[in-house]
UniProtKB/TrEMBL annotation:
Xref: Pfam families: ABC_tran (PF00005)
Molecular function GO labels: ATP binding
Organism of derivation: Massilicoli timonensis
SUPFAM superfamilies assigned to the protein according to its UniProt record, in alphabetical order: P-loop containing nucleoside triphosphate hydrolases
Family as reported in the entry's similarity comment: Belongs to the ABC transporter superfamily.
Biological classification of the source: Bacteria, Bacillati, Bacillota, Erysipelotrichia, Erysipelotrichales
Gene3D superfamilies: P-loop containing nucleotide triphosphate hydrolases
Keyword set, alphabetical order: ATP-binding, Nucleotide-binding
Protein name: ATP-binding cassette domain-containing protein
């Protein structure tokens, strides 16, 4: 039987380097994440949500316990390659380059990942359509797009090298309720239709209600 676990945390604890010996931000976390499901990570400010994403994305490696990606401990990976090929990251503030067009932002991600794609512009358009953007918008500067459209570009960018795991940091935090629902439709569809694992850090109750599993910090 296929193991659907893509990411596993076993007894993970973390404290900042300058913290006291017993001052942990995260303590003894045991979380499992599977393909095809949407997870919400919820907690009040200061509970360690952003720190957790830093651990899962390999930006912080000085943790106690183990984090396994596809049954291999994360610290054994080339973490630059892990971030540019194995996981996609979506930010609250979109993190797009404003002087580039929508398609150029997506193509830049392909170039960084060195993912072998014969026609990158065609692939960028395909990805934009997957997240509900039109081909007419491919050459539009991202600053000319609405917040919801920019977040769709950011999601398309995160899909440019077809990762199975998407980490999203407050992806609807800057959006109105209707646009939040539309973005969640996209993320839920990616999990259900494409068997991706979607992990969302959020304060939003509507986002949590759309998740399959909610982990509280």
């Amino acid at each position: 039987m296929e193991n659907n676990n893509i990411l596993t945390m076993e007894h993970v604890s973390y404290r900042y380097k300058d913290a006291k010996q017993n001052e942990y931000v995260l303590t003894d976390l045991n979380f499992t994440f599977q393909k095809g499901l949407v997870y919400a990570i919820k907690g009040k400010s200061g509970s360690g949500k952003t720190t957790l994403l830093s651990l899962l994305s390999g930006l912080e490696t000085d943790y106690e316990g183990n984090i396994y990606f596809r049954e291999r401990e994360l610290r054994q990976f080339d973490l630059d390659r892990y971030r540019s090929r194995d996981i996609g990251i979506v930010f609250q503030s979109y993190n797009l380059l404003p002087h580039l067009s929508a398609a150029e932002n997506i193509i830049l991600s392909m170039n960084v990942s060195q993912y072998p794609i014969p026609d990158k512009k065609e692939k960028a358009v395909e990805l934009m359509k997957r997240v509900g953007l039109s081909e007419d918008q491919k050459d539009r500067r991202v600053l000319k797009l609405s917040g919801g459209e920019q977040q769709r570009v950011a999601i398309a960018r995160s899909l440019s090298y077809e990762p199975k795991l998407i980490l999203a940091d407050e992806p609807t935090g800057n959006l109105d309720k209707e646009t939040e629902r539309e973005i969640m439709d996209i993320l839920v569809d990616l999990a259900k239709q494409e068997q991706k694992c979607i992990i969302i850090v959020t304060h939003s109750d509507p986002v949590c209600k759309r998740a399959d599993i909610v982990y509280q910090l």
